[in-house]
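Question (not urgent): is this output format expected?
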Amino acid sequence: MNRFPRVRLPRAAWLLALPAIALPLAVQAAADTDTLDGARRASVIDGALARLDEAYVFPDVARRMAESVRARVARGEYEDIRDGGAFARKLTEDLRAVSRDRHLRVIHHPAGAPQDADGAAAGRDEREQFARTNYGFDKAERLQGNIGYLEITRFPPRELAADTAAAAMGFVANADALIIDLRRNGGGAPPTVAFVQSYLFDQRTHLNDIYERVGDRTREFWTETRVPGQKFGGSKPVFVLTSQGTFSGGEEFAYNLQQLRRGTVVGEVTGGGAHPVRPFPIDAGFSIGVPFARAINPITKTNWEGTGVQPDVATPASEARDVAYRLALEKLVATAGDEARKQQWRDLLSGLKPP
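Got this back:
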C-alpha cells in the first residue's frame, strides 16, 4: 500500500523555476532530524520515487530514474550519508544523471520547517520576499536616445506582481526601443510571463502552451488584449538580454519573442529548462520539486529543454547590454522618418566605442 497520498496539481501553482520552497506539509511521516538512519533514507527514497511515478512529465523517464536509484541502493551508495542536506544533494544528482532535468530537485528542510497544513505562514513569507525584491523588477531606466531599459530577475505569481509589472511597463511605454535584461532571471510563473509580454503586442497573440501529464491536458497562454496602463506596443524594436544563468521562465520570455519575431535575443545560450515544476512533500524534512509538465511553442512545436535559447546575436553576457544598445540605435537610424531624430541617434552611435 502506498503511504504517500496522491496530490492534485492546482493550475495556479505552476512555476517555471524552483526557488527556495517553504512547503505546507500535508504529510508528517517522520520527525525531521539532521542525522538520517537507514529506515529514514529508505522512506525518503520511496517517497521521492512515488512522487516522480505519479507526476513526472515523462513516465518512461520516471521509471528509468527509479531503476537507477534502486540499483544504487542495492550497491549501498547511500549507506554512509547521514546528513539530510548531503542526502538531498546526492539524490538530486543521481536523479538528474538519468533525466538531465535541471528543474528536478530533492530539498531538505531542516528542523523548524513550516508545519501549518494550509500554508498560510509560508504564503506570507513568500509575499514578503517578493515585495522586498520589488517582484523581480529590478531596474527601469530611460537611456540616451529614448531607449527604454528594464531588468527583470524573476516572474512571481501574476496576482502579486501585476501592479509592479504594469508600473514598470508604463515607465518604458514611450521609449522608441526597449532592452529587456533577463541575464539574472531564474524563472517564475507562466501567467506572469504572458502578462508582461501583453504590453509588447497590439493584437491578442498565442505565446506558448503547457502540457500536463496528469490529466492529459494542455493550457494555452495568450497575450491579454487589455492591460492596466499604456502598452509599449507591437511595432517598436525590442531586444532581450540573456546569459547562461537565464533559466526557465526567463527562457520562455526570450523564446516566445524570438519565435514570434517580436524581439532580438542578445547574449549567451541559456540554461535549458522548459519543464514547469511543483513541490511535493515527502515527509516533515524532505520535499521534491517534480517537473510535471512541458512547454510546447505553437510555432516550433517544441521547446528549449536541454538546448537553451540560442541568441540571435551571440556575445558574452557582460557585453550584451552595450551590444543591444548599439543595435537599438542602428535600428532607429535605419527606420527613422524624421531627419533631426535620425541625426541624434547617429551622433549617439558615433560616440560609442568601436565594437
